Amino acid sequence: MLRPMSEWDIKKLHILRTLREQGTVTATAEVLLMTPSAVSQQLSNLAKQLGVPLLEAHGRRVRLTDAAHLVLRHAEAVFAQLERADAELAGYLQGEAGEVRVGAFSTAVPALVVPAVRRLRRSHPALEVRVREAEAAEAFELLSAGAVDLALSLAAHAPSARDPKFAILPLLIDPLDVALPAGHPLAAEPGLRLADLAHEPWIFGGSGPWSEITTAACEAAGFVPEQAHSAAGWTAILAMVEAGMGVALVPRMAVADRRAGVVTRILSADQPRRHVVAAVRRGAEDGPAVARVLTALREVAGV
User: Fold this and answer.
1) Architecture of domain 98-168+276-301
2) Per residue, what are the HEC states of 37-85?
3) What is the pTM of this model?
4) Which CATH class is domain 173-274?
């Protein structure tokens, strides 16, 4: 009676396949660097495991039975799958395959992560990147908990460089420009400074990182911004700017969200900036798959 598949032995099946190719036990033993008696013993054990005769006498030689040919026909599919597994594992070890989970804040997704994924799809199609949008501060929580393998965040929200849990790598400096309605009196003002907008109504989130960035930048320029409207998403913020409801600081990375009725001005002397960083759990930066993703992100960022 045929035994369960759990008793099929890959090593013994390989010996059986080699015997079919070589024709004799002696030749099989030479190819596999075994003794003829060891070959015969292994095949005898395989026949007992499978519950079918695999060899029959043919003069002074042996030949494979019909059952052995049937076994090998199915075994070839197993060998082919194992070859694919070996190739995929080799790719994984070389960073050519595998999965990397990336946590990134909203503007980093279209500006950095998506272009990096496109590059990797061309150069390393077997390497899968899974993206999870997260606030800049939350990204480190996800990284620490093992929910993501790589986090894109802001240096202002990063742990201390002495924190032993993380390796933090600079990616780019993202300038903050000011968004004004197209008909605003200062829209074409030469040498525009942030301080020139001290008396304007401002649009920014009621809390969170962007609120902190806006208020800190304005305070550094010498004034406290009057918050006329509160919004967190760039679509809402720029729609209100376009409608003449106020002005806002916008990261240059958010270019995809700009509107025809909005003028974006580069501030001259007191332009605020934010520093974008990539972070991994310390030691993971040497992992081949993570290193591939980091390289692609750095290429996109121009590092």
Assistant:
1) 3-Layer(aba) Sandwich (3.40)
2) HHHHHHHHHHHHHHCCCCEEEECCEEEECHHHHHHHHHHHHHHHHHHHH
3) 0.67
4) alpha beta
Residues 6+ apart with CB under 8 A from 267: 176, 177, 178, 192, 193, 194
Q: Judge residue 164's burial from the number of C-beta atoms within 10 Å of its C-beta, 0-12 exposed, 13-18 middle, 19 or more buried.
A: exposed
Nearest in space to 122 (alpha carbons), one of 296, 280, 283, 301:
296
- What CATH topology corresponds to 5-93? Arc Repressor Mutant, subunit A (1.10.10)
Task: Report the length, in residues, of the chain.
Answer: 303
Strand partners, 108: none
Burial (CB count within 10 angstroms: exposed 0-12, middle 13-18, buried 19+), residue 269: exposed
DSSP 75-134: HHHHHHHHHHHHHHHHHHHTTSSEEEEEEE-TTHIIIIIHHHHHHHHHH-TTEEEEEEE-
pLDDT (tens digit per residue) in 110-151? 999 999 999 999 999 989 999 999 988 888 889 888 889 999
Q: How far apart are CA 67 and CA 121, in angstroms?
A: 45
Numbered ranges of CATH 3.40.190.10 in the chain: 98-168+276-301, 173-274
pLDDT one-digit tens code per residue, 71-115: 998 888 887 787 677 656 666 666 677 889 999 998 899 999 999
